[in-house]
Each structure stands twice: as C-alpha cells, then as structure tokens.
Design goal:
CATH architecture: 3-Layer(aba) Sandwich
CATH superfamily: Collagenase (Catalytic Domain)
Bound molecules: zinc ion
Shape: globular
CATH topology: Collagenase (Catalytic Domain)
Number of strands: 7
Helix content: 10-25%
Mean pLDDT: 88
Strand content: 15-25%
Distance between the termini: 31 Å
Radius of gyration: 17 Å
Largest sheet: 7 strands, mixed
Structural class: alpha/beta
Oligomer: single chain
Order of helices and strands: EEHEEEEHHE
CATH class: Alpha Beta
C-alpha cells in the first residue's frame, strides 16, 4: 500500500541550470522523441494515488462519465499501479468531471496540468519531489469519446507529455474517425522508454537551507 496521505507540501527549489533535461533522441522508440521533460527532468513513476471526482449516483450522465473514466483508468492500470483514494488531498492525480476552460481561445474536451511539489509524508525522514496532476474531462460527449479523451489525458498525466503523429495511438495529436480505446504497441513502447529514463521523482535534491519560493513548474496539454 502506498502511503498516500501527505503531511505537508511546498514549492520545490529550482533545479540547477546545468541539470537542464535533454529531450529524447529521434531514434527513441514509439513517439518518445516528441515528449518533453519537466524542468526537473522526466516525470516517470509506476505508482500513482488517483482520485476521481464523484457525482450524483442517480444521474445517468454522471454514470456514463464514471464508467468511461474508470474503464480508461483500468486500461492504464495494466501499465502503472493505481491506488484509488477517496480524499482529493491524498491524490497525485485528480480526475475532474468538467470541461476545461478556453485556452488561447481554443476549446477542448480534456486537459492535463502538472505541478511538481516537495512533499513530506508520514513515516519518511525527508521530503521528496512528487507530481500533482490535475486532469479535466468534459462530461458532454458520447461515452466512447469520453473514454478516449480520458485515456489521452491520463497518458499525459502518467508522464507522456507530448503527442504521437498517428491517430491510432491514444496519444495521437489528432483523434481519428474511430476513437482509440486501447493502448497501441507504440503507446506502450513510449511509456516503457520513459520508465527507463532517470526520473526526477524518487530522489529529491536535499536542501540544507530553505529554498526560495519558485513559480509552479507547469506542463499543460490538451
Ligand atoms: Zn494531448
């Protein structure tokens, strides 16, 4: 069981400039060469505490949304270990049932936003860098479209901050005529490549002095 409840969290210190992460080479498998690392490096972890916004159980529109996102979570659950939590404060990834606000005048059905935080958890000697991902999935679509949107945005959330050029991949930049509801071979290869990279997450830089407050390190993608 992952110790989900954090004791406290704060903004992480800025990463040293000489540690600027490099993107993947063009020869990397799948569409890994399209991925962007965060300023702290690759956001790669195989276990996530996930919270899903509840809704009225009698509302069939909410039931449809819950079924679609739960199915998408199960699909990713074959690649990453997911722990569902009932308190949003305990989560590293939060799935919200709402339409993303317009961004640069552009509407979309889903959005994912990453912040990195310095988190102190119970039973640990020191704090560590952890992700906090907010995923917004619009309820106003057909069930298959909600599921495809959730698969795509969860892919960003789990570290695939980039797009494939193929609509047959769940991370395709442009959705195909038929929604991608299964992870393709390329989706899995790309995630596997990510897991083989040095992750920014497990080993947080140890701070002997209090860090200056830093602006959030945001990666955002539709
Ligand atoms: Zn996207």
């Amino acid at each position: 069981m992952i110790p989900c409840p954090p004791v406290e969290w704060r903004q992480p210190a800025e990463p040293p400039a000489e540690q600027a992460p490099q993107p993947a080479p063009a020869t990397a498998p799948g569409y890994a060469s399209q991925l962007r690392p965060s300023r702290w490096g690759w956001v790669a972890q195989k276990q996530w505490c996930v919270w899903v916004e509840p809704g009225p159980t009698t509302d069939r529109w909410n039931q449809r949304w819950q079924t679609a996102v739960t199915t998408a979570l199960s699909t990713w659950g074959e690649q990453v270990r997911l722990v569902r939590v009932s308190n949003p404060d305990d989560a590293q990834l939060r799935l919200w049932r709402r339409r993303p606000p317009l961004q640069n005048g552009r509407a979309s059905h889903g959005r994912a936003l990453l912040q990195l935080q310095q988190v102190q958890r119970q039973g640990r000697e020191s704090s560590a860098l952890e992700p906090l991902v907010e995923v917004l999935i619009s309820p106003g679509q057909r069930q298959a479209a909600i599921q495809a949107t959730a698969l795509h945005e969860l892919g960003h959330g789990f570290g695939l901050w980039g797009h494939s050029e193929l609509s047959s991949d769940v991370m395709g930049a442009v959705p195909g005529a038929k929604p991608a509801l299964e992870l393709s071979e390329r989706d899995q290869q790309t995630l596997q490549w990510l897991f083989e990279q040095p992750s920014a997450l497990p080993a947080a830089p140890s701070q002997t002095t209090a860090p200056e407050p830093a602006p959030p390190s945001d990666l955002t993608a539709d």
